[in-house]
Amino acid sequence: MDNKELTKKELDILNDVPYSFELEYFKEKTIKVKRFYGLITTNKSIREKVKEVFKIYPLRLSTMDRMAKYQIELYLDNSKFSQNNDTDSFNEMKLVAAKNAYNMANIVAIAVLGVDYSEKEFKRLKKVLFDNLTPIKLEEIANEILNYQSLVNFTNSTVTMSIKTTISPNEVE
């Protein structure tokens, strides 16, 4: 294998590593119950516990454009964090996370869907994330997403696409 193929393999490995998180929640399910020797059927709603693993792959430009709509609305007042009082800043962080929880749920839902975006799945996923994750956990996941779309990563990917690559591939014996 030549150096170009080794570099391609190494970049494929780096690009396919997702950020994943697991979520347990209750899902409404409707079943049919037969009564009176099967002559009458009624619908019964039951709550079923579901465990789902969500994966966020490195973001594409179309996904970043969709997320920008909600990132603009994120609220943060830096003047309240400038004081040195730890308890006040901690309480303010909790308030900011609670105020931005809905927008962060939107951002996380868009990032999870990625390129396979559909409005119906987006609404379902947004509701599941908003109802079952704490604002602090949503903020943690949103920060990971922001790390995925940072300009430094974009610049590094542009550098690796140039003629003189900065990655030296490992020799395979």
Describe the structure.
With 173 residues, the protein is an alpha+beta fold. The protein has one domain. It is 52% helix and 20% strand. It contains 7 helices and 2 strands, in the order αββαααααα. A two-stranded antiparallel ribbon has the order 1-2. A hairpin with a 4-residue loop joins β1 (19-35) and β2 (40-56). α2 runs antiparallel to α4, α4 packs across α5 (119-132) and α4 crosses α6 (135-148). The chain is flat and about 70 Å long. 14% of the residues are buried. The model has no long low-confidence stretch (mean pLDDT 77).
Return the average pLDDT rounded to an integer: 77
Tally of structural domains: 1
How many strands in all? 2
Helix- and strand-based class?
alpha+beta
Which ranges are low-confidence, i.e. pLDDT below 50, for 5 or more consecutive residues?
none
Distance between the termini: 10 Å
Q: Name the helicity range.
A: 40-55%
Radius of gyration (CA) equals 22 Å
Instruction: Tell me the strand order in the biggest sheet.
Output: 1-2
Beta content comes to: 15-25%
Largest sheet: 2 strands, antiparallel
